[in-house]
Amino acid sequence: MTDAPRLAVFPGSFDPLTLGHVDVIERASRLFDRLVVALLVNPAKSPLFSVDERKSIIQEVFASRPSIEVDTFDGLLVDYARRRRATAVVRGLRSGGDLDYELAMASMNRHLDADVETVFLTPSPGVAFISSRLVKEIVAHGGSVDGLVPEAVQARLLRRRGAATRRNA
Ligand code: PNS
User: Fold this and answer.
1) What backbone torsions phi and psi does residue 134 show, to the nearest 5 degrees?
2) pLDDT over 90 for what percent of the chain?
3) pTM of the prediction?
4) Of 6, 36, 86, 87, which has the highest C-beta tally within 10 A?
């Protein structure tokens, strides 16, 4: 054991950041000295928000929290975690539905690098049903994402809708 600060990486697509993510980030930041929210740069996906927008949303939400950093990565998560000298990778576990995928990913990451430990955190029941995929679906159909995403996401979506309405006027 050393007294070195314990850093954890919370990786994901965060497209968009949801209140479920915020909950897990808050929980993880209480367990580690420093938490890096690591956004995967994945050019294959067609995202709701660009990587820069997603990064600035997360930075805005956690602006008052110096122990929470936002970064981007590409390539293998284990390589990024090693580069950051992370003690752990944090993932949220919402339901049994997440379990197979998350176990496979954690086991694969352990196979790739036995030093990378995955820590699963469960979100509050009130936000455990939220997923970025469903939020995107609601947005695509013009529904309300009130209570599902932070203000910073809502504000950008409203701005976007306003611009689209003005274009079509
Ligand atoms: O928010 P997501 O999309 O569920 O996050 C998935 C993520 C980014 C954690 C995962 O796709 C990932 O780690 N990608 C990087 C590439 C990698 O290391 N793949 C092997 C993991 S088995």
Assistant:
1) -70, -35
2) 87
3) 0.94
4) 86
In the reported structure, the alpha carbon of residue 9 is separated from the centroid of ligand 1 by a whole-number distance in angstroms of 12
Given the residues 54, 91, 132, 156, select the one marked as catalytic. Answer: 132
Q: Which of 21, 54, 55, 156 is catalytic?
A: 21
Give the per-residue pLDDT at 67.
Answer: 98
Provide the residue ranges of all domains of the chain, joining segments of one domain with +.
Answer: 7-168
Residue whose Cα lies nearest atom 16 of ligand 1: it is 76
166 is catalytic: no
Task: Supply φ then ψ for residue 34, to 5 degrees.
Answer: -140, 140
Rounded Cα distance between 159 and 79, Å, is: 37
Nearest CA to 28 among 99, 103, 120? 120
